[in-house]
Amino acid sequence: MKNVDFYKLLTGELDAIVAERMDSKLRAKLKQEEQKRAYALLIWFLSFYSEVANVETYITDGNDDSSCDIILDLTDNQGIKTFYLIQSKWNSESNCSGELDSTELKSFLSDVQVVMRGEKSGSKNSRFNARYKDLLQHIKQNGAVKAIFLCLKNRCTTTADNITATKNSIGGRLEIEIFDINRIKCDFISRRFKGSLPPNPLNSIYSPEYEKIRLSVARDDPASRNQIFVRSPFEAHVFFVKPSMIFALVERYGVSLFEKNVRNPLQRSSINAEIESTLKNNPSYFWYYNNGITAITRSIPEISQQAEEFEVIGLQIINGAQTAYSVFKALQSCSPEQRALIDAEARVTFRLLKSGGKDFDLKVTKYTNSQNPVSDRDFWSNDPVQEKVQEYFYDTNHWYERRAGEFKKPPEQVSIIPNTYVASAHLAFWLGDPVGVFDAAMKRESKKMDLVFTSFKENEKGLYEKIFNKDTDSKSVFASFCMFDLLTDGDGFEIPTVFFTNGFHILAIARVLLKKYLKAKFGDTVNLAEYIVKRHLTDDDKPLRQVITHASVIMSQEMKADGPKKERRQAFLNLMTKRAHFDVLLEKLESSALTPETIESIELKEAGDELDRLEDDEFETIEAAEST
User: Fold this and answer.
1) What is the mean predicted confidence (pLDDT) over 575-583?
2) Which of 7, 333, 468, 539 could form a disulfide with 96 if both were Cys (CB 3.0 to 4.6 A apart)?
3) Residue 590, Cβ neighbours under 10 Å: how many?
4) Does an H or E element contain 131, and which?
5) Do the bridges between strand 415-418 and strand 398-401 make them parallel or antiparallel, or are there none, so unpaired?
6) What is the per-residue pLDDT for 94?
7) So what's the pLDDT on residue 483?
8) Distance of CA 188 to the CA centre of its chain
9) Residue 252: which pLDDT band, with cuts at 50, 70 and 90?
10) Structural domain of residue 136, as residue ranges?
11) Which residues face 309 on adjacent strands?
């Protein structure tokens, strides 16, 4: 979703707020549309992230434009009070893809310093004066304060030092967070189109990764051990817990409790509703209907058979996210008396495993979820590298899908692109390994194993770390997709079948040709990824299509060389399946001459017309060779 599209969508929601929630007196006071929308943005922000009721009562901005638009205090579920200073800046649609002016942010930081030091003079706005007095008292008690700046532009990249300097000059418990259009857009997509819950900036963030966490065991039968204990190779315990313990964990840590889970909890689903209904209406049946929860921790103490409580260090729920979140939602809507009744009858099986290192933890996550339909690619869906790639794609009308079914109802103008296609395109085009793509496709077809999303530590032919690593550049990944999108734009084949054609080999050839074309035409000054992305997004892609067409002709010629049919077939199979043979072709192209005219004189046609597909007997030949 381009920034301008999101801007229009959000503006529609803000205009509805202006019409429905601003009375005539307030609309008369805020004469300009920009003022009304800035006001509405504050209401939207608080409602979207925190579902704060009576939002309007917290807005302190008046005619004299006080330094902070909102002074709000909230107490979290642990009883910790935090004051929030929130300011919004409205900008026109034409500026939503630009960068925030550093002077605007510096002005906000200056306002924060004045307010935090108690140097702000009184205002005509009585609401501001009252809230400001409470804030200063809170600061004197060493209370936590968080300053938030909202804007519908791209984040300013030159003010990080100013933010740090402001925090250092004030000291104490001050946090500063900038919400630019990309941050708001990503969170909006997560909530509205995925049904997942983005982190709430108006709540204290407690990380379960290293904290000491107290767990409670339900000892219902004193005559039995009430638990299973495994000592080696990695310590593990299985015991019953009460729903209230699960509720307390989710209440404190929220979605950060599920960061290692391949299925983050969804806001709404039929499964969640059924779990909640059972817990509320038939709590004694809950254990029979539910598989329970599996969690990994860094450290487990010695646990006696009589212990009802113990502390662990760090906790991640790797299986049972829907169960945990549904228990939380069910108890959240119950009275204390109802919670006590549920606790008395319902039990949850809790498997607690001590971490055995990253590789072990990943495999446990994979295999404990294997009873459900989860593909290989889903187990890597929480990789931060893929998260960055997805955020980059959000700036376009092509959304990168990290896990199957991730987007419930995307906007009409947006197409969902499974990461299998994107990763394969990047491997072929940017990394020059179409043979790896083809081999992975064959393995998916014959052995139901996806090498693209398999680690080399698990299988020596695993390709995941080759594609996604610390050097993976999101723009380069998107550029690879752009070329794949152009290749598959013709009517010559369906996208799923491209894996069994020479299409990815054409992409690898196209990169060599495109680099040579750009160097011949512009010298060494052109960035390949930037050139591709700009041409693709502006639909000025004729040179890219010409390169792909030329690459397809070259590949076709190589595969249809003169000679006996048997030798031609073997040459075809060698290019498709043997890296050394294909690299010889690339090296030949690298050393050959190419002028800009060679590309620009090409008549465009559908790339699919030049694709060669494997016949059934050729599939059989390859499969037979792999099995020997």
Assistant:
1) 89
2) 7
3) 11
4) helix 126-140
5) parallel
6) 85
7) 95
8) 12
9) confident
10) 3-194
11) 216
Residue 358's alpha-carbon distances to 361, 364, 365, 546, 601, in angstroms, are 5, 10, 11, 45, 53
pLDDT value of residue 518: 95
Closest CA to 276 of 330, 238, 202: 330
Q: Do 155 and 302 belong to one domain?
A: no
Q: Is residue 33 part of a domain?
A: yes
Which long-range contacts does 492-498 make (Cβ < 8 Å, 24+ apart)?
A: 492/606, 492/607, 492/608, 492/609, 492/610, 492/611, 493/608, 493/611, 493/613, 495/421, 497/613, 498/611
Structural tokens at position 611: 């694709």
What's the pLDDT band for 609 if we cut at 50, 70, 90? low
Q: Does 136 reside within a domain?
A: yes
What are 61's two structure tokens?
């901005």
What pLDDT, in 10s, does the model give residues 479-535? 999 999 999 885 444 567 788 888 899 999 999 999 999 999 999 889 999 999 999
Q: For residue 346, what are the contacts with CB-CB under 8 A and spacing of at least 6? A: 242, 243, 279, 283, 284, 286, 287
Residue 624 makes CB contacts below 8 A (sequence gap 6+) with none
The CATH number covering residue 105 comes to: 3.40.91.30
Burial (CB count <10 Å: 0-12, 13-18, 19+), residue 192: middle
List residues bridging with 319 in a β-sheet.
294
My answer on whether 105 and 157 are in the same domain is yes
Residue at a domain's end among 163, 194, 225: 194
DSSP letter assigned to residue 230: E
What are 410's two structure tokens?
A: 């995307």
Q: Looking at residue 427, what is its pLDDT?
A: 97
Number of domains in the chain: 3
Structure tokens at 96: 């939503």
Q: Are residues 506 and 596 in the same domain?
A: yes
Q: Which tokens belong to 30?
A: 């805020």
Q: Using DSSP bridges, classify how beta strands 236-241 and 348-354 pair: parallel, antiparallel or unpaired.
A: antiparallel
The candidate with the shortest Cα–Cα distance to 321, out of 300, 301, 303, 295, is 295
The residues pairing with 59 across neighbouring beta strands, listed in sequence order, are 70
Decide if 534 is inside a domain: yes
DSSP 430: I
Rama region for 523: left / alpha / beta (φ>0; ψ in -120 to 50; rest): left
From CA 122, how far away is CA 94, in angstroms rounded?
Answer: 36
Among 286, 450, 295, CA closest to 379: 450
CB of 260 closer than 8 Å to CB of 365: yes
377 burial class (0-12, 13-18, 19+ CB within 10 angstroms)? buried
Q: What DSSP designation does 182 have? A: H
Residue 80 neighbours by CB under 8 Å, 6+ apart = 144, 204
Same domain, 9 and 138: yes
User: Residue 65: pLDDT above 50?
Assistant: no
Are residues 138 and 72 in contact, defined by beta-carbon separation less than 8 angstroms?
Answer: no
From residue 474, alpha-carbon distances to 110, 394, 538 in Å are: 35, 11, 19
- Residue 32 sits in the same domain as residue 166: yes
Structural domain includes residue 612: yes
Give the Cα separation of 210 and 316 in Å (integer): 10
Mean confidence (pLDDT) of the chain: 83
pLDDT greater than 50 at residue 573: yes
